[in-house]
Amino acid sequence: MSQHATKAHAFLANEERANWHDQSLWMVREKRDRASGQIPDWEQLRDCASGIKDHVLANLDNYLEEFEAHALANGVQVHWARNAAEHNTIVEGILRKHNARRVVKSKSMLTEECQLNEHLHRQGIEVIDTDLGERIIQLLEEPPSHIVMPAIHLKKEEIGELFHQKLGTQAGATDPKYLTEAARHHLRARFMESDAAITGVNFAIAETGGIVVCTNEGNADMGVHLAPVQIHCMGIEKIIPKAEHLGVFTRLLGRSATGQPITVFTSHFHQPEPGREMHIVLVDNGRTEQLGREKFRNSLKCIRCGACMNTCPIYRRSGGHSYGATVPGPIGSILTPGQDLKRYSDLPFASTLCGSCSDVCPVKINIHEQLYEWRQEIARQHELPASKRLSMRIAGWVLASPARYRFFGKWARRALQWLPRWMVYHRLNAWGKGREMPEPPRQSFKEWYQNEKPKQS
Amino acid sequence: MTIGLFIPCYIDQFYPQVGRATLELLQKAGCRVEYPLAQTCCGQPMANSGCETDARAAYAHFVDTFAPYDYIVAPSGSCTYHVRKHFDILEQTDTVHQVRQRTLDLCEFLHDVLQIEQLDSHFPHRVALHQSCHGLRGLRLGPDSERREQRPNKPTALLRMVKGLELVELQRADECCGFGGTFAVAQPDISVKMGRDRIADHEAAGAEVVTAGDMSCLMHLEGIVRRQQRPLRVLHIAEILNGARL
Amino acid sequence: MSARAHILKAIRERRPASPPLPRVPGPQQQGAGIQSRFCESLILAGAEWVPESAIGDWGSYLQKHYPDCQNFVTALPELAGPGLQFLPATTDARSLRNVDVAIIKGDWGVAENGAIWVPQEQLPARVLPFITQHLILLLPTDKIVETMHDAYHYIRPDTTPFGVFIAGPSKTADIEQSLVKGAQGARSELVVLQPGAA
């Protein structure tokens, strides 16, 4: 079995917990349905967002230059990084210059992707993740299982036990309110003593040189406004042309992500406070390569709302960790093969191609079609398991010829009729694991049409 | 107008009654229907596994077989979608283009082309419609729960013409059943879990029968129903529309 | 080649042909009942609202409604008085760690989501609306618009070094999807609706 299938098997071993996970995420999907239903022109808004992003990708160089020029004029320092290593070195350099030892960071999938925390930790710099969900998994030393709700896979009893050990809360306490309050006290102390703050970026506005950060907890702002230095790390695809486009994306993001009409805080940073420094790091890390892949480039339109995860019937029943990637779920399964085809070659197959992801996507990424295309690409690059490759070759040979098709079809039905049960249902028959095989009829439709039908009329 | 009846391979081999119901339904509606004996398969199993190059010969054979017909009608949203969407790797001659354009799912054909308004069938049972994904989101046979748009639900409209039939509402109107072609065997744990959840939803809605426009979803669901020895019955929508009895 | 040049070159070699930039929806007329829609959105966002006329004397209002709080500050000199300290612009953000209630003014409100635009000019320190335990926002009712499109029609975010839309108190649902108010920022938000200039 593939890695994903193996991990899914383990996840489903505890069915009650899998049901709970499925239901939690389905609830978020339902909230998204209600919130999107409040906008009469929802589909036009998706079209508009998708069109803006398509336009940006086609003019990304110009918009990046425009963004940089305006940001510099605003007194912001702009850095460019080709890959994760350069990104980490740049951030480390800024922190070293300010002799920063204690850093607070709000949610940033980019820094996850670049493994910034691990890098800084090795350099003796402490990074505290300040989003509650991220702090929980950081204390647990686990990666996030979802890009918007990083700790969605954990039960409150587990978080209670973790907080008891790490933050000194009462043993056995599981009340979310009480646990959140404990985290609030813990994190407020970290904000007060931080030497620098790092955030991700939701949108970067080319015409103004400013960036926008969306949170519900207010942790990005608590970090940035209380620290002497602010660093914002962004993938180059986060650019939007004009401030007016924020109207489109802020309407879509919160509704798609959690079913809120807007995130609680939508913060617009244009200039540092007097006497302080503001840095923006623009990161490629494979994005320009993806831009060059015609069939896959529009995956770069993603605004990281996580709606495709919440709706995905496979994600909900296998958990984010089953994907083994920073960005899990449907969008992750079309982004990661571009980063490392060999390593992630099983992910495009972790889907039934049901298409729900493409239809919830606020920027209309054709996710399920790209999953299909990645499958073709994986076969072309010989990354399919040999047995699968062979069986498909045989199937193609059989199905190209009526005579062969007829012969093998009849043979298969006979075999199912005559073979004893133990020869049909064994460990190599994955179908038979939880299902009966279809009951083979005496004759196929074709045989009936040829033999019986003429007798009737 | 002559219709080329396309009976997908697994229906041909395992569910000939669905092929018969489709044929009879079309003939009762006054269509001239031929079943070209040379037909095999739309090639989807190979293509969905990443091996569309291996499916190319099957695609070409499909086009050759069905080129003479005014419409090609199949009791399957999924195979229809595959022909329409993925035969793009063939050279797009006029013939290929026409075959792709004229291949329709049975419900689509009855609703859009024949525009039938009544059916002479009676099915006094509580029925749940499983909305197969490729028909729903690929062919847009109805509005899905993700998009905010108005459009007719073609399978539902047809089922409402059956006397005595009571359609039940599901908690999750259009969640995937977990079949997914080779996914069913590549990821058996999730596949079966998805199917079991779907069946639970249908049972909770009080359905006696689950129907769908795609026998592949139903083959998967039926496999689980039979393994678990549950009372739920499985019928293709063509069988119900054609006047099947339990 | 610098990273910058390298990235820009890679984009130029790979970018597709450009489709036109779509037009965004233009500003709408403020429809009848916009204020009540705004207030409904506030409630859904977990905030509360009162008309300014219901406040009366600020000192006694605060004492009555925030009985456990001691440290009341405002950025509006006209509101200051006994028990409500005027807060001039400060660069020492950390000195605000013990603020219990902060009263500030918002520039625009958005009916569809209850968000209120607060630019830096309304803030003695950027951190104030986040670090305070409770937030009170004053908003003139003639500054309510229907949607975010309308809001960005009136707001030029680059005319202020920092500005934020605030829609309710700080929230989290990171523990089993249970909604908890007061994650890192303000625990509550009260919006005081002021009569418009008209």
Layout of SSEs?
The complex is a heterotrimer of chains A (457), B (246) and C (198).
Chain A: H1 3-12, H2 15-37, H3 42-58, H4 60-73, E1 77-81, H5 84-97, E2 102-105, H6 109-113, H7 116-122, E3 126-129, H8 132-140, H9 156-167, H10 176-192, E4 196-199, E5 203-205, E6 210-215, H11 219-226, E7 229-235, E8 239-240, H12 245-257, E9 265-269, E10 277-283, H13 287-291, H14 307-311, H15 313-318, H16 329-339, H17 356-360, H18 367-380, H19 386-399, H20 402-418, H21 421-424, H22 445-451, H23 453-456
Parallel strand pairs in A: 1-10, 2-3, 2-4, 4-7, 5-8, 7-10
Antiparallel strand pairs in A: 5-6, 6-9
Chain B: E1 2-5, H1 9-14, H2 16-28, E2 32-34, H3 44-48, H4 52-66, E3 71-74, H5 77-86, H6 94-102, E4 103-105, H7 106-113, E5 126-130, H8 133-138, H9 154-159, E6 166-167, H10 183-186, H11 188-204, E7 209-212, H12 215-227, E8 233-236, H13 237-241
Chain C: H1 3-14, H2 34-44, E1 48-51, H3 58-65, E2 72-74, E3 85-86, E4 101-105, E5 108-110, E6 116-119, H4 128-131, E7 134-140, E8 144-145, H5 148-154, E9 162-166, E10 171-172, E11 180-181, E12 188-194
Parallel strand pairs in C: 1-12, 2-3, 2-4, 4-7, 5-8, 7-12
Antiparallel strand pairs in C: 5-6, 6-9, 10-11
Throw out a few tags for this protein.
heterotrimer, B: alpha/beta, 2 domains, four-stranded parallel β-sheet, 13 helices, C: alpha/beta, Rossmann fold, six-stranded parallel β-sheet, four-stranded mixed β-sheet, 5 helices, 12 strands, 23% strand
How would you portray this structure in words?
With 457 residues, chain A is of the alpha/beta class. Chain A has helices at residues 3-12, 15-37, 42-58, 60-73, 84-97, 109-113, 116-122, 132-140, 156-167, 176-192, 219-226, 245-257, 287-291, 307-311, 313-318, 329-339, 356-360, 367-380, 386-399, 402-418, 421-424, 445-451, 453-456; strands at residues 77-81, 102-105, 126-129, 196-199, 203-205, 210-215, 229-235, 239-240, 265-269, 277-283. Chain A starts with a helix and ends with a helix. Chain B folds into two domains: 2-113; 126-241, Rossmann fold (3-Layer(aba) Sandwich), CATH 3.40.50. In chain B, helix 12 links the parallel strand 7 and strand 8 (233-236). The radius of gyration of chain B is 17 Å and the shape is globular. The mean pLDDT of chain B is 97. Chain C has 198 residues and is of the alpha/beta class. Chain C contains five helices and twelve strands. In chain C, strands 1-12-7-4-2-3 form a six-stranded parallel sheet. Chain C has a four-stranded mixed sheet with strand order 8-5-6-9. Classes of the chains: A alpha/beta (457), B alpha/beta (246), C alpha/beta (198).
